[in-house]
Amino acid sequence: MSAQLLNLRHVTDEEADEVRALLEHHAIDYYETRPSRWGISAGAIWIADRARLPEARRLMAAYQAERGARVRAEHAAARAAGEADTLWRVLRTAPLRVIGLVAGVAAVLALSLLWPLLLRG
């Protein structure tokens, strides 16, 4: 019986490709389910042989620790170089997008807080 190794929700294509390559390198049989059309299920990578699941989980833990360290180092380097996205950088490069998002949040808050006042009469 198979077992899920990785839910692909919020997983980048790059990361999913690295996980597939890791499993193939260690000759662990896997298959993948695709996301549903309307986004109800995100898809997943499944280990075909449950007996290999502990090994696959150990490999995933090591991979995630290495990837986390690598991504944090890349982000720190981008911040040191002044290339990382900050609120002010995004505001300068896409002011209409930021204004639209703030207006959307304000509208949702207004509707959420206004309806009790309207129901009171």
Brief synopsis:
This protein is mainly α and 121 residues long. It folds into 2 domains: 1-84, Alpha-Beta Plaits, CATH 3.30.70.1530; 85-121. It is built from 4 helices and 3 strands.
Structure write-up:
This protein is mostly helical. It folds into two domains: 1-84, Alpha-Beta Plaits (2-Layer Sandwich); 85-121. Helices cover 62% and strands 11% of the residues. The protein contains four helices and three strands. A three-stranded antiparallel β-sheet has the order 1-3-2, with helices on one face. It is flat and about 65 Å long. The chain starts with a strand and ends with a helix.
Keywords for this structure?
3 strands; 2 domains; about 60% helix; Alpha-Beta Plaits; single chain
Structural class: mainly alpha
Percent of residues in helices: 55-70%
Number of helices: 4
Main sheet characteristics: 3 strands, antiparallel
**Secondary-structure arrangement, i.e. CATH architecture of the largest domain:** 2-Layer Sandwich
Strand content: 5-15%
Distance between the termini: 60 Å
* Beta strand count: 3
Write down the overall mean pLDDT.
91
The helix/strand series, from N terminus to C terminus, equals EHEEHHH
Backbone CA Rg: 22 Å
Give the overall silhouette.
flat
CATH superfamily of the largest domain: Hypothetical protein rpa1041
Overall structural domain count: 2
Question: Low-confidence parts, pLDDT < 50 over ≥5 residues?
Answer: none
CATH class (first level) name of the largest domain: Alpha Beta
Kindly report the spatial arrangement of strands forming the biggest sheet: 1-3-2
